[in-house]
Design a protein that fits this description.
The protein is built from 5 helices and 5 strands; from the N terminus they run ββααβαβαβα. The protein has about 170 residues and is of the alpha/beta class. The longest helix is centred in the middle third of the chain and has 12 residues.
Amino acid sequence: MIGGYNISPNCVRVAVISYSDNAVVSIPWNRYNDRNSLQQAVRQLRQLGGGSNLTSAFTLLNNTVLPGKRSNAALIAVVVTDQIQSSQPLTSAANSLKSQGVTIIAVGITRQGRVDGNTLNAISTNNNYAVSVGDYSQLAGVVSRVTQQWGCFVVTPPTPAPPTVDRT
């Protein structure tokens, strides 16, 4: 996916969050300023064992990564998971991100039967942004599709809440 973008401090910036039972920022904003070094760093990341606490990843994205964003940036979160089940905290965390203008693209790896398709749809920005593949070997084709179909967005900042008036 990275190959289709101009990675630089003034164009596309990328952060990567890895998660299992807990989440960690594996690659913070601006760590890599060119496509080749970012691709090499992503290739060195290893799949984590354990559970799948996507809620913790969304919370980390919201509290740690997003505060470093540019004010006019299109915000796109691509989730790749091989286990996801419905939970109210997960839905709330996804909805919080979406309300801030984050587009969520969810890719489910279904081989082991631990991906609930309804939950994948629920966390994504819309049903067209939820994609399922059988196993990790099919991820390359999906990544190409994500880049082509959903790689560019018109930036639409969230509508600010109207000011409250104290009538006391």
